[in-house]
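Tutorial handout. Part one gives the primary structure; part two gives the three-dimensional structure as tokens.
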Amino acid sequence: MGLLGRRPQALPDCADWIIDGRLAAMCMPTREELEHLRELGFALVINLTEKPGPTQMAASVGLKGAHLPLEDGAAPTLE
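Part two.
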């Protein structure tokens, strides 16, 4: 089961499930895509870009946002 006890739902085109129904990843979302994620039951958006814009936009549609910028789009480390 996934978000809110339901099966994984269809995500926006540029998104994909990392853990079915629990964790997804996507490119730079539009406001409409963030609204769709909220409607699916998502509660948190973690922004790994250097720009705070996606985090602020997430908050504007009722999602919690965390900004953890990674330099030049590098992969996160375990540290």
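Part three, for discussion. The beta strands are 15-19, 23-26, 44-47, 64-67. The first helix runs from residue 31 to 40.
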